[in-house]
Every structure is written in structure tokens, then in C-alpha cells.
Amino acid sequence: MDGLTAVVTGGTRGIGRQVARAFAEEGTNVALCGRDADAVDETVADIEDAGGSAVGLRADVRDEFDVERLMETAARFENDGIDIVVANAGIYHGAPGETPLTAEPYAAFDDTFRTNCRGVFTTIRESLPHLTENARIVVPTGGIGHKTKAGYGSYAVSKAGAEAVVRGFSAEIDRPVMGLDPGVVATEMMNGEGRDPEEITDMFVWAVTDAEDVNGEIVGLKQWRQATR
Fold it and tell me: Which residue in 8, 224, 226 sits closest to 136, CA to CA?
């Protein structure tokens, strides 16, 4: 990973922040984004203080022009082109498990889908002109996207959609695209319940370095552990 360029959306907190830091520790030049400009600056400073290389932009994956600008910036950062894309940005309106579809406001549904599904589509789509020959694309997903469970409303729908986006692009482009299901991770979005985000960063490093034959698949913790024994 040393010397490669990676884009991480939603890179200022939770999984995205830890993945950005882990990649930087491996020598990767990281371009990250988030909606909060101060959080972007703080995350970049944190990576640079640890000896890493990073650039950050305030960008919203709901806006394709923001994402286009992010990819153009990343492609010019240190090297020409983008080697790794992690379409991580996501949102959850409400408390996990307490947002049934039967009671979900239309505005919440639209915003969740626009961020978690269309945002993945936009991130991959806008990266395509800049991808290097051996580039890889990773999309964090979740079991809720393919398992029936009440109370997760548009979040579950959006994750199912994101997995379909993974499969669609994997069939149409000549770069590997894969989904990663790290299980429940203790992020702000999940009210701090689950695994520490730092515990699953090795899964992402593996996905962009060793998972050469994985394309169009959703890899969970069990499969990852089996593959890395």
C-alpha cells in the first residue's frame, strides 16, 4: 500500500476515520471527506501528526459535484490517479432498531437512501475516470442489508441497495468491487454499540491488498477470518 492513493468518504468519524488512519500508517496517501469542514481538518491533522500523508475536503456524497471535485483532488494528490476507493459515508436517522418503515417520514427515507445508496453509486461513478489499472473499490455494508429484521427502516433498504450497486458495477467495470460486512461496529451512528472500529481495520487493509479474486461479493467477518488464517 506504500505510495498508493486512497479515497475514503465519510472519513472523519467511525469506521471511515479508523480506515483512513490505518491506510496512512501503511504508507498510503489518503484523500478523505466529510460534511463538517472542522472535522475534516482535524482528521487530516491527526493523520499528519502521526507521520501520514492526507488531504481532506468538505464534501457531501449526496452532491455529485462535490464528489467529482473530491476525486479530481485525490487523483492529483502526490501521484496520478486513484488506487483505492472506500465508499464509506453513511447516515442513520433515529435510534438503531427503532425506525420501522411503517412510521418512517418520507424526508428521512429519501435522505438515508440518497446518502447510503446513491452516495455509493456517485462515489464509484465519479472515481471511474481516475482509477489506476490495479485499483480496487470497497463498500462497507451490513447484515441488515440482506437479513430480515424489524425496526431498521430505510437504513436496511439503503444497505440492500448499496449491495446491489456493488454487484452492478462489478459486472460492468474491469476493476474489482466488493462489499465488506464488518458486523455491528461501535460508531456514533450505532449509538456506540458493537466492535471498536479499530478492531476491523485489518479487514479493510486485507480487502485492498490480498483479496485479489473477490469481485461482486459481500465478505463478512467469518469469510475474512477464514481467508486470513
Answer: 8
For 156: left if phi > 0, alpha if psi spans -120 to 50, otherwise beta; the answer is alpha
Torsion sign, CA atoms 91, 94, 96, 101: negative
Are 139 and 162 in contact by the 8 Å Cβ rule? The answer is yes
pTM for the predicted model, two decimal places: 0.91
pLDDT tens-digit map of 76-86: 998 899 999 99
DSSP characters over 56-77? EEE--TT-HHHHHHHHHHHHHS
**What pLDDT does residue 188 have?**
56
Residue type, 132: T
CATH numbers and ranges of domains, the chain: 5-227 (3.40.50.720)
Q: Hey, is 55 helix, strand or coil?
A: strand
- Given a contact cutoff of 8 angstroms between Cβ atoms, the answer to whether 176 and 133 are in contact is no
| Beta carbons within 8 Å of 166's beta carbon, 6+ residues apart | 120, 139, 141, 177, 178, 179, 216, 218
- Write the burial class of residue 137 (CB in 10 Å: 0-12 exposed, 13-18 middle, 19+ buried): buried
Distance CA 65, CA 16 (A): 21
Are 140 and 179 in contact by the 8 Å Cβ rule? The answer is yes
